[in-house]
Design brief:
alpha/beta, 5-stranded mixed β-sheet, globular, disordered N terminus
């Protein structure tokens, strides 16, 4: 075992606010004097040097963590030979982690969260551009916006919103020449309910329920993506929950790392800030109370979703097989984004 020795001074200055799944020790926080729950500050945590460690951040996983959590972490290659002491802590202070780079939104006036899923690193290269786009609602697109998406190559739109959402806010690209529009509703317990009624207790539970209860619709969406060689745009109202689940499955299938999948999901919260501000003002005006987490996309919610997917189905391909896709269909979807 390795012992975390001297606590460096001014620890608060170095502490990062990290979104981590349960059972994970942030190694830097341990070095900087922030023991995990259950440890008192005057007792030095004792951790196995041959543990499991997050590839990018050196976060240590508890030995009794669920298998799904462990699977999402790489083998720990200790940067220190014997103990993590003051020098180790100083080394971590100077160490910088480069977060995964996520695609910026396309420059559209009527959409905040339309993004290409191309350009993400895979074991053999990067995901292909102009194959799949994820987006929020398209009802406010300007004429210039719709032409921009058409010029970008979009020829198929898969709208995941409910009948009520479509009635209130029809897609602005509906009826465009050569653009196929498909409506495959996924019920998200949020926007599909017009932001009224009961809400999921967490976004993880929403994604958990979608994966379990909307398998037929998810299979239809994936086959609709496979059915064309042209650029496909998938959207819902915010482009983070229903669209986020579909994007997560496709990126994992293409070999994109879990860290990047989480980053691609989490950036929606920043992208949607102007839209969320408008929605909150409207809710206050109508006297409707909506839980704050409905408007967010914290990394931990997708991390928990990935852990559930891994624990239950092993991987994205396992999930697709469980909902009825054939091996040829799964292979075809892999090639949609994946450079061979």
């Amino acid at each position: 075992s390795c012992y975390i020795g001297d606590i460096i001074e001014n620890a608060e200055k170095h502490r990062a606010i990290l979104h981590l799944p349960p059972y994970v020790y942030p190694a830097a926080m341990l070095c900087f004097g922030y023991p995990p729950d259950g440890y008192s500050r005057d007792k030095v945590p004792r951790l196995p040097i041959e543990g499991i460690c997050h590839r990018d951040t050196y976060d240590l996983v508890q030995p009794d963590a669920p298998t799904a959590v462990k699977r999402s972490f790489a083998k720990f290659e200790a940067p220190f030979s014997v103990e993590m002491n003051r020098s180790a802590a100083v080394w971590l202070t100077d160490w910088r982690v480069t977060p995964p780079q996520v695609a910026p939104p396309l420059p559209l006036k009527g959409s905040y969260n339309t993004r290409d899923l191309g350009g993400y690193p895979t074991p053999t290269g990067i995901t292909k551009y102009h194959r799949l786009l994820r987006s929020d609602g398209l009802q406010s697109l300007t004429t210039q916006d719709t032409q921009s998406l058409y010029d970008y190559g979009v020829r198929r739109i898969i709208d995941l919103r409910s009948d009520g959402e479509l009635l209130q806010a029809p897609c602005a690209m509906l009826g465009m020449p050569e653009v196929t529009y498909l409506h495959v509703p996924l019920i998200d317990e949020i926007h599909a309910n017009n932001l009224q009624g009961s809400f999921p207790e967490s976004l993880f539970m929403l994604y958990h329920n979608l994966l379990l209860n909307s398998q037929g619709s998810i299979a239809v969406v994936l086959r609709a993506i496979l059915d064309t060689q042209q650029t496909v745009l998938i959207n819902c109202t915010a482009g983070k929950d229903r669209t986020g689940v579909i994007a997560m499955l496709l990126l994992l299938l293409a070999g994109v790392s879990p860290e990047t999948v989480v980053a691609d999901y989490a950036v929606s919260q920043e992208n949607l800030t102007p839209l969320v501000t408008q929605q909150k003002a409207m809710m206050r005006k109508l006297g409707i109370e909506v839980p704050e987490h409905v408007f967010e996309s914290p990394a931990v919610q997708m991390q928990q979703t990935l852990a559930f997917l891994t624990e239950t189905y092993k991987d994205a391909a396992g999930y697709l097989a469980a909902i009825g896709l054939t091996s040829d269909e799964i292979q075809g979807l892999m090639q949609k984004l994946h450079h061979a």
